[in-house]
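for the writeup, i need someone to sanity check this before i put it in the appendix. the sequnce is what the collaborator sent (i think, or maybe the updated version? ugh). structure was predicted straight from it, no edits. if anything looks off just tell me and ill rerun, i have time this weekend
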Amino acid sequence: MPTLVFMISRRQFLALGAVTVVATACSDSTDTAATTTPAAPITTATQTTTVPTTLPPTTVPPTTLPPTTVPPTTLPPTTVAETTTTISIDELANAYTEFGPYPIGSTTLQLAKGPKVEIWYPAVDGTSGEVTYDVRDFTPDAIRALLTADIPATYTFPGGRDVDVANGSFPVVLFSHGFTGIRVQSSFLTAHLASWGFIVAAPDHPSRDLPNVLLGTASGDRNDSVDDLLKTLELVTAEGSDATSRFSGRVDNSQVVAVGHSAGGSTVVGAALDARVAGFVSLASGILLGRGNETTGTTTTTPAADLPQKPSLFMAGKVDAVVPVETVTRPSFEAAITPTRLWVVDSVGHNGFDDFCTFGNGTGIIGIADASGLGPLLDAQPQLRTLGQDGCLPPAVPVDQTFPIIRHAVTAWIRELFGIDAEPVGLGAEVAGAYSVAVEIAERL
């Protein structure tokens, strides 16, 4: 997301920094024949006189019946009609909106270069419980101390921490967070993908993550974030080859896709240039975003010459004022290598693709700041409030209405990419009118 530079005191800077977080699986057979028993001989016993009695033979002429001819019975040929299963548009549109067949596991690893990596994965049967994170725990201590309001600042999904991985070998999804984002920022999607049989890995990007932005130490180096993502792939691959790891034999690194939000959309474009990555998903972003400086979110006006020759999916919010669909996402879709798809979801803003609008009773971290007494500082810089609440307030609808659309589209697209679904399920324009909000669906195949 774009960075705004203001002349403020250090305490004001810390307070304002807290606000910027928003921007970002089934007898023997017996023959019955006639039995003929010969008649027993008749013997007559005599005492003195034997009178032989001779009876004339009795001849019973054979009974000859005229041959009976039974005409063969000819039945008309029987035709068995093919069974056709009709799937409704509504079923197609919502095929992947709900959690999949696997329980969800999560754990945290770390790259040798430093950043932590969050991993969501298909867990063994019987896994239960909940996993929760608090966004305030991802801020520096000084900022955390200011966010004192008793107001929701957590996101929870069903699952277990550090549980065993389900049997099987699972494709890999790499996730890249946005500017002022955090590795767990889109758990609504990453945990969902794990339930459908994917290992999802998301590193923190020190070049643009929340704590470094707040501390003024974010470099904005796109190449560093691309390196984070590819190093994460190497880490997951190594875990799959390590006999002592819970992921031993569970990682299918022949099937890898990258998903990114906002500035992360630029990162996944870079990562998709790697031969190991089969395609990419860009959320509230585009191939033109972040080609300048990630810290300012500047864009170029022409597509880069090094676009990945890979399939892609672009998703955008119709009311995103941070990364407008018409000036960034749609031109990116039009410039991308085919095959590519575009979904524009009405009434969704920039933070409609992360968890942040679930905080602050639906007002985002801005609501946390307001409830913590920091409203006057925000009022002094209204553009910060606008950026922080993009996608959390009207004209955007509550994200719980639109999260299912995003979950379905991303899950269906990845399943098609990897050949899990022989044909695309609910990705075509026929499902555009099946949701609670309007969706524009375009494709270049």
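The longest strand covers residues 251-261. Residues 222-241 form the longest helix (20 residues).
thx in advance!!
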